[in-house]
Design brief:
This protein is mainly alpha-helical and 410 residues long. The protein folds into 3 domains: 33 residues; 82 residues; 222 residues, Pectate Lyase C-like, CATH 2.160.20. It is 44% helix and 6% strand. It contains 9 helices and 5 strands, in the order αααααββααβααββ. α2 packs antiparallel against α3 and α4 packs antiparallel against α5.
Length: 410
């Protein structure tokens, strides 16, 4: 160790021995330093070879060698530039891969978590569906009670007691809508298949009109699932079918007078000769529906989708068709007298012999504009149609103290 120092009290021989020992220590220390420097040079060489590449390293070494000689060849410069670009390109590729791998794993983890969450949600809804469907046994008990009363020889009018009617109404309220699994996917909107089954059963029992009306007025059949059902000529007067799914149903000749069908899905339904007087169909989807010779007098059809529907000979007198979509509909021989048509879309509609006499196309209070520009603004309120422009003119009139603009035959 170098910590030792000469001691003045020692003999000449001891001092020489100590001096020799110090020389050996210094020699060993210098050897260790050289060895460490040699290792650093070797490690740097290896690391440089790994990061720069052996070919780039050799070309740089050759370049420095030629620089010392004062003569650098084009081949050496080309090798340095080429290997430099190639090396940085490889480093870039590895960097991209290094960035993509964790992102890929993160995306995969997110996807797996989304699937897991989806399954948890499905399980939750399925448990709720199972709980609610268990209420069906109540339906069986009520069905037995209905059969008992209808088989009573003294019950010649097929009426039900108020007690049984009350139980039916309570059951319709209890059978709430829910989402269920269709294949391996939950349906988008809650629906109640049980309410649909209850309604089908009641309409097939041949109950008297009074009994059905009591059930319809106080019961709740909203969001009932009635896809592709056959309820032709059924008495569904004043029934609550808000948001119900009746797609492809056969409702020919059915009585829906005063019914609530707001937001119902009625695509492709058969409503020929059906009675829909005073029915609220606001926001309902009747696209492609067959309403030939149906009666919709005084019906509410605000924002209703009637696109591509068949409305030949239909009675829409006094109906509210504001914001309704009537594009492409067949309204030949239809009665639209005194209807409200503000903002109704009639593009490409078939209007042969269609009666628009007295149809309201605008209210003065909603125009905020004076003559003569008012007629130009009215044209924007209803879709321009050659038939209307050819056979009708816009007339300014007074109704219940308000100024309105209606269509009158030329």
């Amino acid at each position: 160790m170098l910590e030792q120092t000469p001691n003045p009290g020692k003999s000449q021989q001891e001092l020489e021995a100590e001096n020799e020992w110090l020389k050996n220590e210094l020699k060993n220390r210098n050897a260790e330093i050289k060895k460490w420097h040699k290792f650093q040079f070797w490690a740097g060489k290896k690391i440089g070879g790994i990061f720069l590449g052996w070919q780039l390293k050799d070309s740089i070494h050759r370049l420095f060698g030629e620089l010392t000689q004062g003569k650098v060849t084009q081949q050496t410069l080309a090798d340095v530039v080429t290997h430099t670009l190639w090396r940085f390109t490889r480093i870039g590729i590895f960097a991209i891969l290094a960035a993509i791998i964790p992102v890929t794993f993160l995306a995969l983890q997110t996807w797996l978590l989304s699937i897991q969450n989806k399954r948890i949600i499905q399980q939750t809804y399925l448990q709720e569906a199972e709980r609610r469907s268990s209420q069906v046994f109540l339906f069986s008990n009520i069905q037995d009670k209905i059969d008992e009363e209808l088989k009573d020889p003294h019950n010649k009018k097929d009426t039900l007691s108020n007690q049984t009617i009350g139980r039916i109404i309570a059951l319709s309220l209890a059978l709430k809508p829910y989402r269920y699994l269709d294949g391996d996917t939950l349906i988008n909107n809650p629906i109640s298949p049980e309410r649909g089954q209850l309604l089908i059963s009641l309409t097939n029992l041949g109950l008297d009109t009074t009994t059905l009306l009591k059930i319809a007025r106080k019961g709740n059949f909203s969001q009932a699932e009635l896809i592709n059902v056959k309820l032709s000529s059924a008495n569904l007067k004043s029934i609550d079918l808000r948001g119900a799914n009746l797609t492809y149903a056969n409702l020919m000749g059915a009585n829906f007078e005063g019914a609530d069908l707001r937001g119902a899905d009625l695509r492709e339904v058969d409503l020929r000769k059906a009675d829909l007087r005073g029915t609220d169909l606001s926001g309902a989807n009747l696209r492609g529906a067959n309403l030939i010779q149906a009666n919709l007098r005084d019906a509410y059809l605000q924002g209703t989708n009637l696109r591509d529907a068949y409305l030949q000979g239909i009675n829409l007198r006094d109906a509210d068709l504001r914001n309704a979509d009537l594009r492409g509909v067949d309204l030949q021989n239809a009665d639209l007298r005194d209807t409200y048509l503000e903002y109704a879309k009639l593009k490409d509609a078939h209007l042969k012999k269609t009666n628009f006499e007295g149809a309201v196309v605008a209210w003065a209070v909603s125009l905020y504009i004076e003559e003569p520009k008012v007629h130009n603004k009215i044209k924007k309120r209803i879709s321009s149609h050659p038939y209307i422009e050819e056979h009708y003119k816009v007339s300014r009139e007074e109704k219940d103290g308000e100024t309105i603009y209606v269509l009158r035959k030329k």
